[in-house]
Amino acid sequence: MKHLALLLLPIALTLPTAVQALEEPTYEVVRQITEQVEVRRYAPYVVAEVVLDTTSPDAGNQAFPILAGYIFGKNKGERKLAMTAPVTQTPEPIKMAMTAPVTQSPTGGGMRVQFVLPSQVSLATAPEPLDARVRLREEPASTRAVIRYSGTWSQANYDEHLAKLRAALGAAQVATEGEPVLARYNPPITPWFMRRNEIWLAVRP
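-> structure tokens emitted (205 positions)
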């Protein structure tokens, strides 16, 4: 993560100190389950994403330069887009993820990492990436169960809160589907106790 921190440092120094100043996908809370767990209804939004043959701890480090390059002008027209939050990542089988050549790992697994594009950018108006690994896609309207927590991005912290989320949803009889999504709202230089982290699970219709 040291490499990612160095990459993010110039950006973080130019960002507002309040996380709320960064644009986020639009949502409404439709059910509060616990103090940390809620169900949200998200409006559609557009993402730039990359799928890499890597593990969760290394996904952000590898994906950030690729996606940051796109929003900072590595696209047709050299158009620069505003930084938003969060950056998300979720497990993705490489063979299902993209047609661009990748080096397969022994496990055959990969990670999908997404940057949310500003709300005024649609799939039709988003600039075309120059890097073939970057794909643009619209996330449809969806209902997601979310747990919000602070702390490090360690696997242990993630596993602890994913278990809490699943337990709370089980008690509330909320059924989910698909892989969990890790959403990170702060750069690595943010002190661990000030970070906003979330895990999302799609609620089954």
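DSSP finds four helices and nine strands in the chain.
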